[in-house]
Amino acid sequence: MLIASIVVLAVGTYTMRLSGVLLRDRLELSDRLQRLLPMAATTLLAALALTATLMEGAAFAGLARPAGVAVGALLAWRRAPFVVVVLAAALTAALLRLAGLP
């Protein structure tokens, strides 16, 4: 079942990418839509990151995970090395969980 799912997803992904190449010259998008498409992709990525940060399954993930992500985001914004960002975020979440926060 797992292999079949992987194959179906791979074929679907390949088909979507191929359709973009094949339909590029046939499909005319308005200037407004061409300006909105990059923002839509950014919005979708931000929503996915926010959901992964705040939710664990169908429930709230607790305060430790968002705090760790916030520390990591702050360090990334300050252009800290990637290893420092990841370690500081993980350490923040681990220490808060050790202190009893969910």
From TrEMBL:
The chain crosses the membrane at residues 6-24, 36-60, 80-99. Keywords: Membrane, Transmembrane, Transmembrane helix. InterPro entries: Brnchd-chn_aa_trnsp_AzlD. This is Branched-subunit amino acid transport protein AzlD. It comes from Pseudosporangium ferrugineum.
